[in-house]
Write a structure and sequence with these properties.
Helix content: 10-25%
Structural class: mainly beta
Number of strands: 25
CATH architecture of the largest domain: 2-Layer Sandwich
CATH superfamily of the largest domain: DNA ligase/mRNA capping enzyme
Number of domains: 2
Distance between the termini: 31 Å
Oligomer: single chain
Strand content: 25-35%
Radius of gyration: 24 Å
Largest sheet: 5 strands, antiparallel
Number of helices: 6
CATH class of the largest domain: Alpha Beta
Mean pLDDT: 88
Shape: globular
Strand order of the largest sheet: 17-16-18-19-20
Length: 406
């Protein structure tokens, strides 16, 4: 039995594009889910492997039984040394000059005590997991729990707006390609900021039974972070200013989803890796999604073009469009030969460039927006290997993404 999280899982994949490492005789390079990894000399094209990406942390039992600790005293074979630290963090890093984004291992490394061997034998390409047979193999790595901006252990006030929707957990593009229908696609630059939400939503007034003159609900302005339904913790003063600025312009039932980047009011970077050229003490807001919730609780997303227009009306930044077109094969309206649109492999290079907002800033990656058959839009993400390596190096120094705490 496999158990998996909504995102951040190990995945069974096949190695592709296995080739010689240009700077190492005992290593090879391969491609996994559109990203490059360094592999051993015994790696072969099409080999079925388990891939752990650089968001993950490997658990002690897996590291111990496979002799992966760099401190050999922690390994089952104390004469063998691996290259994982005590925390078991999977990294994106350069190995002999080449980016290796994550860790690839043979399927047999999952044969741990307590795991029925038949569960490992039955693994298929595309299977994702954090646990096998109830034994935890990996989970998402969080740099510091309880760090500034974290809400762990804090008592959060309940939000009075029943329909203060949180943005969905954005899945990885290369893991979800089978879910993308033929149709219109839009690639937008992924901004490395901190997320926020503000809405003009129906809230309970908390009226008592005898207060017959008060309505049960009324529209109020509410704001929050990615997971928390109030302004608190990380850059609260910036979030208050955003709410005050946008509140008079919100329609009833409207909710805005945005990224904040640059600096807080005391001149500290909002994200250590990126300021996008914003002057110290200033910040910018980029709108990436807008929903409208009706009084009966039905939620509708604005189209990508409508989001652009709304950003202009609010005086905010709108998403930077890197590419727009058609995905997959489409038939011409009058029959005849099919017309070929872009394939995923044609688009991955858009992640590996400098930011369109600032040429001195590394691009985090892109968001792959596509239209469902019912006309609504949803998205997947793809991150730059160079950005992941920089982020991994920051974690080595004890830093991390403030989003982990929000």
């Amino acid at each position: 039995m496999l158990t998996k999280a909504e995102t951040n899982n190990a995945i069974v994949v096949r190695l592709t594009n296995v080739r010689k490492h240009p700077n190492a005789d005992r290593l090879k390079l391969a491609t996994v889910l559109g990203t490059q990894v360094v592999v051993g000399l015994d790696a072969v094209e099409g080999q079925l492997v388990v891939y752990f990406d650089s968001n993950l942390q490997l658990l002690h039992d897996y590291l111990h039984c496979n002799n992966l600790y760099s401190n050999e005293s922690l390994n089952a074979d104390t004469t063998t040394r691996g290259y994982f630290g005590m925390n078991g963090r999977v990294k994106a890093q350069r190995l002999r000059g080449e980016i290796s984004n994550g860790y690839v291992a043979k399927i047999d490394t999952l044969r741990l005590p307590g795991i029925n061997p038949s569960l490992v034998d039955e693994l298929n390409e595309g299977d994702e997991f954090t646990h096998i047979g109830g034994i935890e193999i990996c989970h998402k790595y969080i740099t510091v729990k309880g760090a500034p901006g974290s809400h762990a252990g804090n008592k959060c006030m309940p939000c009075l707006a029943e329909n203060f929707w949180r943005h969905w957990e954005t899945h990885h593009l290369m893991r979800e390609t089978n879910t993308i229908p033929i149709g219109p696609v839009r690639l937008e630059e992924k901004i490395h900021g901190t997320s926020g939400r503000t809405g003009n939503l129906l809230c309970c007034t908390g009226k008592r039974w005898w207060q017959f003159w008060r309505p049960a609900k009324e529209y109020r302005i509410v704001s929050g972070t990615r997971r928390v339904d109030h302004i608190q913790g990380h850059i609260p003063e910036v979030r208050r200013r955003i709410e005050e600025q946008v509140a008079p312009k919100l329609h009833q039932g409207e909710e805005l989803y945005y990224e904040i980047y640059g600096y807080d009011i005391i001149g500290k970077r909002i994200q250590k890796l990126s300021d996008y050229g914003v002057p110290a003490g200033e910040f910018r807001v980029l709108l990436y999604r807008v929903t409208i919730t009706t009084p009966d609780g039905q939620c509708y997303d604005l189209s990508r073009k409508e989001v652009d227009k709304r950003a202009e009306e609010l005086g905010w930044e709108k998403p930077t469009v890197l590419w727009e077109g058609w995905y997959g094969i489409q038939n011409t309206p009058y029959g005849g030969h099919p017309e070929m649109g872009a394939e995923i492999a044609d688009l991955l290079h858009f992640a590996d460039r400098k930011s369109a907002l600032d040429l001195n800033t590394l691009r985090e990656g892109f968001v792959f927006w596509f239209q469902r058959p019912d006309g609504s839009w949803t998205c997947l993400k793809h991150k730059s290997a160079e950005f992941l390596a920089a982020e991994s190096a920051l974690k080595d120094e004890g830093g991390g993404d403030v989003e982990d705490a929000l």
